[in-house]
Design a protein that fits this description.
Residues 38-65 are annotated as: Disordered. The chain is 23% helix and 27% strand. By secondary structure, the protein is of the alpha+beta class. The protein folds into two domains: 17-46; 69-132, SH3 type barrels, CATH 2.30.30. Strands 4-3-2-1-5 form a five-stranded antiparallel β-sheet, with no helix packed on it. The N and C termini lie far apart (84 Å). The model has no long low-confidence stretch (mean pLDDT 82).
Length: 133
């Protein structure tokens, strides 16, 4: 007779959790946070992009003060919400944007790319400079 036992088909059968109710609680919290985040993201996008293209000018970075920032302050860029803004990222090409959200560490809105508006988001630490119109 062979004393070898078959491995469980469910790999979690042999795991004993000290506090299984806490695990369930945290799993449910993560699900709720993801759901809330998805609702917020869709509500920001539902109004849609601006109905017009951005201004027909290209601002120059030389018009802005030369300051080496670690990150843009959210209070400084907050007045740009629902206005056309020109953003110079630390990496990449500058672009026109129409911001709809400013948080503690990030912004999101509509970026004008190849003659159309595309939804985007970026960290404040990745913005070199900006100007609102």
């Amino acid at each position: 007779m062979n004393n070898f036992t078959q491995p469980s088909k469910n790999k979690l059968d042999n795991i004993t959790l000290a506090y299984p109710e806490e695990l369930v609680y945290y799993i449910n919290m993560v699900k709720e946070m993801r759901s809330a985040r998805a609702m917020v993201m869709s509500s920001r996008q539902k109004d849609g992009p601006p109905k017009t293209p951005p201004p027909d000018i290209t601002p120059q970075l030389s018009d802005q003060p030369d300051v080496d920032l670690k990150a843009v302050d959210p209070g400084a860029i907050k007045p740009c919400v629902y206005r056309f803004s020109y953003i110079w990222p630390k990496r990449g090409k500058p672009f026109w944007a129409y911001l709809v959200y400013v948080g503690k560490k990030s912004v999101s809105g509509w970026k004008y790319y190849k003659n159309r508006w595309v939804y985007f988001g970026m960290d404040l630490k990745d913005i070199k400079s900006f100007i609102c119109y």
